[in-house]
Amino acid sequence: xxxxxxxxxxxxxxxxxxxxxxxxxxxxxxxxxxxxxxxxxxxxxxxxxxxxxxxxxxxxxxxxxxxxxxxxxxxxxxxxxxxxxxxxxxxxxxxxxxxxxxxxxxxxxxxxxxxxxxxxxxxxxxxxxxxxxxxxxxxxxxxxxxxxxxxxxxxxxxxxxxxxxxxxxxxxxxxxxxxxxxxxxxxxxxxxxxxxxxxxxxxxxxxxxxxxxxxxxxxxxxxxxxxxxxxxxxxxxxxxxxxxxxxxxxxxxxxxxxxxxxxxxxxxxxxxxxxxxxxxxxxxxxxxxxxxxxxxxxxxxxxxxxxxxxxxxxxxxxxxxxxxxxxxxx
Length: 330
Prior knowledge:
Elements lengths: L1 E4 L8 E6 L8 E5 L14 E8 L5 E8 L2 H46 L4 H21 L3 H28 L7 H9 L5 H34 L5 H30 L1 H8 L5 H5 L2 H47 L1
Antiparallel strand pairs: 1-2, 1-4, 2-3, 4-5
Helix pairs in contact: 1-2, 2-3, 2-5, 3-5, 3-9, 5-6, 5-9, 6-9
């Protein structure tokens, strides 16, 4: 329920709140702030969310829930979308459309299916395929380059799913060090926490795989156009030199992203005076380490697979384009 902080005195624990939604809209209430660590310092005009609790009769008690950040968040989203469109032009517009489609598939298919207790691995793989087919061709066009990237991504994604299953089972990861997973186990017993972790591994690897596969397919396409007489082996060898650079840079990006996600918990574990090896192999840190490892393995596999597919199909593309080029010259 929304509200706004009114007449605030910093030295007091009571804040006057103007309620602007719900059954008590237009009224005021007092909100008691306990001053606990992490509690926000409310200023006059601050928009907040409240929770309501019936305390008997017609009386309602309100408690602080969170800051209303809608304006700030959507403003940054708009700025980001505008920057993408300005720099990438129509391709940026198609990329944003693909992102919206991806979020729609996750929100309206994957999440409801997981809540119904569906198999997380199968659902995440189906989600990846459903997203990739339209998005790949929407963003990069209907061509052999997109088809090669799609084939490489799906192959690597399936391999990453198998590797993630082996990693989670072999390391006996349970995910129960994460408070969110504990709440899921408590309130959603039909949802498998380990299965959900596995689905997270797969979905997390999807984005980086898509990035590197389209880059490799584009590289092979450019090489084939520059040298139409180059055979598949020559194209593969040349493109792999570029692919090794992609692997090196993307592995750093992938690992650092996951390290950043687990940094607060790693900091807490480090001050607990536990041995370094115990910290690194604790449930929550090991989860992020293995997530990084699976993503890196999938990435490493995606480069040669996509390069091989694009190199083999390059001659098919040239043969298909030859009649059209001959008619143009005629």
